[in-house]
Amino acid sequence: MLRDHLATPVVDSKLYDEYVMNPRVANEMLTPYKAFFRNVIPADKRERYRANPQEWVAWCADSIAIDRDWNPQNLAMAPASVWTSRITDARSRNIFFVAASRSMGLPARIDPVTEKTQYAAPDGRWIDADFTEPLDMAVVPQGTLKIDFTPQGRITDPQYYSHFTLSRIVNGVPVLLNYPEDATWSSTFAKPSKIDAGQYMLTSGQRMADGSVLAYTCFFNVEEGKTATPKLVMRQDASGVQVIGGFNSENIYHDSASGDDKSILSTTGRGYYVLGLLSPNHEPTVHALNDISLMRDELEKWGGSIVLLFNDSDDASRMKLDRFKNLPSTVTFGNDIDGNISREIIEGMELPTGDRPIFIIADTFNRIVFLSQGYTIGLGEQLVDILHRIGRN
Q1: Rounded to whole angstroms, how far apart are CA atoms 132 and 129?
Q2: Which residues of 23-50 are buried (b: 16+ CB within 10 A; e: fewer)?
């Protein structure tokens, strides 16, 4: 298969590596297809399609029937199989178009952000392959987008997907733009960038300690040749952190590192701390520890102690802690002696007994200001948000 794709004829294009030789179109299973298409599509037709890609778009629209019923899981069909059967779903048709285009030396792609199927014009512009109007050059009017944001609270550079998303309104329905997972406001939207003209929806939000989300949505238009500058608003919770229960910081636990039995207070010192009750090799516990690891820098900057406890030494020995090497240096592992700590929290907060992990933020005046039990999205961010507001003491 590697030989098949490395043998792609070289064309004079800056797009060659990524959009001609590259075998990957979307997230489909890789198959050899380039020699196949060079064999089944005569050389004179390949030359004609390269010179006039709209003829190739028209051929695909006329010759490939679209089935909407027999592939409910939307699994990608191999490009060569699409050619052979001449019937497939729309997604596989799009992958087929790109795969065959690249086999003929025509740069093509499925845009990772908009998911539009496109081929490259000689001047480097991307042209939409519109299979509903195959004889038209589908050059979509474009404008410019620059999102305005003023840092608020601890969020200085909002993350795409985690803090905000952008969707284009198509036929009255919002269609999410799929920017890279690591996209942020500063990396993608702080400077003007080209975007299709149309109506858009900008949505932002941050999760609060009680699980609610402070959300904000605005709609705006991008006009051809003009710059749109919507404002990204991260709503803030102006209310203070409330005391929701009590926990005795003098409770004794077994410190795994020192081998001593000691009080929570003797480990944390005065002020606020985080206490977690874990289950070994348990998916919600693993998810919680990964979330905390992602916020390592901010939790270390806060400086308070994080005490993580298992039921007993047997549970602790079964947990593969080497998987979590990026946990904050302020974490202390231990065991809950005779289950006294978990019993106090579960009974005092009236919680279901078997659902872990359990996390609280409390202080050494025995006040609980945050509680999370079971599987929680964004636990690390929730902890940092609360700790940012209450400070160290």
Answers
A1: 9
A2: bebeebeebbbbebbbeebeeeebeebb
Q: What's the whole-model pTM score?
A: 0.64
Give pLDDT tens digits for 111-156: 999 999 999 998 888 999 988 854 445 567 899 999 999 987 668 8
Alpha-helical runs (H) found in 350-391 = 379-390
Q: In whole angstroms, what is the distance from residue 66 CA to residue 112 CA?
A: 22
Interhelix angle for 53-63 vs 43-51, to 10°?
110
End-to-end CA distance of the chain: 62
CA distance to 149, 161, 214, 288, 289, per residue, from 298 (Å) = 21, 20, 21, 16, 15
C-alpha angle 288-359-344 in degrees, rounded to nearest 5: 145
Contact indicator for 300, 329 with CB cutoff of 8 Å: yes
Rounded CA-CA distance 183/160 in Å is 6
- CB atoms closer than 10 angstroms to residue 211: 11
CB 220 within 8 A of CB 228: yes
Contact 156, 203 (CB under 8 A): no
Q: Which residue intervals of the chain are DSSP H helices?
A: 2-6, 16, 34-40, 43-51, 53-63, 79-85, 90-103, 264-268, 283-294, 296-302, 313-318, 340-349, 379-390
How far is the CA of 125 from the CAs of 139, 142, 219, 245, 254, in angstroms?
9, 12, 28, 61, 65
C-alpha distances in Å from residue 389, one per residue of 79, 213, 383: 54, 17, 10
pLDDT digits (tens, 9 = 90+) for 263-279: 999 999 999 999 999 99
Residue where the block lists tokens 């500063």:
186
Closest CA to 388 of 361, 360, 364: 361
Distance CA 379, CA 386 (A): 11
Of all helices (H) and strands (E), which one includes residue 272? strand 272-277
